TrEMBL record:
Residue intervals passing through the bilayer: 100-121, 153-172, 216-233, 254-277, 353-370, 382-402, 414-442, 463-483
Presence of the UniProt keyword Cytoplasm in the record: no
Membrane-topology descriptor: Multi-pass membrane protein
The protein's annotated pathway: Protein modification; protein glycosylation
Protein source organism: Leucobacter rhizosphaerae
EC number: 2.4.1.-
Name the UniProt record assigns to this protein: Polyprenol-phosphate-mannose--protein mannosyltransferase
Ranges where the Protein O-mannosyl-transferase C-terminal four TM domain occurs: 293-502
UniProt keywords, alphabetically: Cell membrane, Glycosyltransferase, Membrane, Transferase, Transmembrane, Transmembrane helix
Amino acid sequence: MLAVRHHLRWLAPLLVLAVAAVVRFWALSSPGSLVFDELYYVRDAISQLAHGAPTVWSDDDAAFGDPAAFTDEASYAVHPPLGKWLIGLGVLVFGPDTGWGWRSAVALAGVATVGITMRLGWLLSRSLVIACTAGLLLALDGVHVVLTRVALLDGFLALAVALGALLMWRDVQWLEDRDARAEPGPSGRTAVRWWRPWLLAAGLVFGAAAGIKWSGLYPLAAFLVFLAIRDLLRRRNAGAPWGAASLRSLLQAGATAIIALPAAVLAYLTTWVGWIVTPDGWGRDPATPWLSSLARYHAEMLGWHSTLTAPHPYQAHPITWPLGLRPTAMYEVRWDGCGGECVAGISPIPNLLITWGGAAALLVLAWLVVRALVRPDALSRGPVLTVSAFVLTGYLSGWLPWLLTVSRSAVFQFYAVVLTPFSALALALVLGMLCGIPLATARASAPGLRLDPDPAALQGRRLAVAVFLIAAVAVSILFAPLWTGGPVAEWFWNAHMWLPGWD
């Protein structure tokens, strides 16, 4: 029995990764033309490989007949370089004239994100069932599938954010281990800790995330706030008075920022090395130090992003992202055949069971956090409070900044791909609680949802969860042709337009 469990511990995650890989790499080279914003990012990636920084192309042909039609003239890119360097890795391996070259790196990033999500699920819950469920939900999430099959930047960003979150959670565990071994002082455990290797690594990763898209800084800021609040609560729980706990927590927050932020800045600047060593890159002036030129370039980029108001048929207000009400169609062609008209399209239409289920699960976790905080013994049930708050922080860090600060109309549903790992984790955690799996960490365990403990009731909930997961897999199979550009009859395509905004 122990041998079976040992093998299952490795086999189950590998099977989930295999599902993720098949869904993302199947027919990856189709279509053989650039789709949506691949027109910009793939071209930038190829010319950046040749020159160290993007250059202008001689045409705007999405069919991409000549993959070497770039010029020597510097091109104005409105996003940092790292995502395009990553696209370029696939181009180096498979060549610039095939969809495998353009998309293989982001597909691999998608599979890696599923693996990281499973690892984070395990560390949050110590449950193989919850970890593999989170990975399977992400592997079959329509938004994540599509955004890791097209050569855009957001699939890479989701990977970096998930990895940064994993490292942040390792920092939480690292501190818990040290606190457990430390002797409490007269006012509780109040030591300010400077040696934080996992936090340093997280800062580097989030800096790299910003080197893909600036929005990669939002999660870093959110998790730093999470760490500060958690530190304050732990000091109070250790017996420190509010005044002393607040002061020491403020000092610890400063130390945390000193560790993480310079690392993030260093990692971010490193992503610009190609531009820095390219004397004829956009905005470079031989008479001006590169740092001044880079600062001016960033001011131009910020101005562009803050004033982008061009209308777009697929723009979607951030308030609609959690429910996937307006997917961004990436590609669509029609021709006669299939007993009528044939359609081949790529659209990140959500699997409603996964997307809406994830939104509902996040509300459950929010309720658990509130319940833990308002009850007198809240701090003794650390796993419920800490795990739920951590997942909520990850999700809200990719959504609330857009919701609260958006000042332009040109924002899109596919930006929400960074939310999908946390939505999958939330849904897996809640489904695990329904199945009677306690919310646990490496050091403690506590029940989450207080449900009927009767064995018959528990068996019924487990059966319902199994039916839900089978239905989610079936829905993903049903929508797979619309995610992967497979040719289908028009009636089949129309039958999948379940909501008015999906057309």
